[in-house]
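[User] At your convenience, examine this fold.
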Amino acid sequence: MNITEIHSLLLEQFGESVVGASPHDAIDPWIEVAADSIVEVATFVRDHEQLRFDHLNDLCGVDYLEPDPKKAKKFDHEPHVEVVYQLSSIELGHRLKLKVILPRWQNDEPGSEPVCPSVASVWSIADWHEREAWDLVGIRFEGHPGLRRILCPEDWTGHALRKDYEFPLEYHGIRGR
């Protein structure tokens, strides 16, 4: 099944307000999903007999902060963060990329982490992927069974893959750079 056919099934089930008017054309095309519907869409693509996306290959967080002025002309969107879901159907042999686009800060309050519903109840491996996306990018997964740091120490401050992250000069008496 190609992405246009998959999108048609999703459009019929959920409507344009949840999955957009069409897939996004790119080298690796994708479908945008409204954050508040990601669990329902994930469950649908996992369980639908023509889709059976039974494997979450990867889930990652990406920060799109406005770049330096030299690159700004190519940056044609507002700063935001994304949760990217790479799915595959082992049984049917097809792949799918879904994205949830979130504001960089919840309610536009700097320092207030953006929130996305957890899909750990749909694919259990999401537990670890969501912990990594929270740890490094600062996307909070609502309903996650145990959201805590997975790579950085528990007392680490901030999220190291945020574009505006300022690396500490010292950590527990150990001098950095």
Observations:
- The mean pLDDT is 93.
- The chain has four helices and eight strands.
- The chain has one domain: 3-175.
- Strands lie at 31-32, 55-64, 80-88, 95-103, 115-117, 140-142, 170-171, 174-175.
